[in-house]
User: What shape does this take?
Amino acid sequence: MTWNRTNRRDWIWNTSVLSAMVASGQLRAVDEPKKKLLFFTKSAGFEHSVIRRDGDQPAYAERIMTELGAKHGFDVTCSKDGRVFDHDYAEFDAFFFYTTGDLTQEGTDRHPAMSEKGKENLLEAVRSGKGFGGSHCASDTFHSKGPAAENQENPDPYIQMIGGEFIRHGEQQEAMMKVVSPSFPGLDSAGQGFRMHEEWYSLKNFAPDMHVILVQETMGMRNKDYDRPPFPATWARMHGDGRVFYTSMGHREDVWQNPTFQSILVGGLHWMLRMTDAEVTPNLKEVAPEASTMPKL
Assistant: This one.
């Protein structure tokens, strides 16, 4: 083939497209294995409808997470069996929790519990470099001991890792999410903020080193659960060598279908799976300085 200016332009365009596809997860470098995510959905406490299975059929959120993985370049394995953390979790690059309660108990869904050793294995795996993420009720898991409406001096090690803890929620309603980290992966289309109808969590025990991505705007919200200053609702942080991502969104089926939620979720997953990088400098004091002020319940 004769090499001319047109050939060169085509070559530059093609290599640019390929580079963009690799960066977005649509195309992997030759011989690079796909990242593997364990989507863990055991309910020792309340079982949410989005992760309730009908017989052998995958739950609603499991289907969507699997579809997102196929579309965005990572493999998803779904499990409710807590014994996975005792023996065969090494193949996974990251874990994503949609869970409730003390997972060392069989609890509501009757699926096998996580052992105490399994919990230790999880925490150590994240400290050593595996990714961890959670949606919604992942913060309603392994609660700290003591009154639910008070900050604890010594949160449970799991709560310390995920970076925040569920207190309560009021009625489902539309509320504002303020974007405070617009350059974080997946925030491109969120603008300065967005409104969404959801079951919003009131949270406490925020990790001081978190990088806040979305702030829960509380002005105008109904119920005393939200009678407090704005506080973090989606964040990222480093836990040892591991990357941790959490979003309080994810209760409703229509939220799981929402393009903004999916974009933010995939951005967080790509970051915690080390498919992309992001600046996660702690910013809690700057963007939510009164987050520790609790509602008077």
Remarks:
- Residues 270 and 294 are 33 Å apart (CA to CA).
- The first helix runs from residue 5 to 24.
- The radius of gyration is 20 Å.
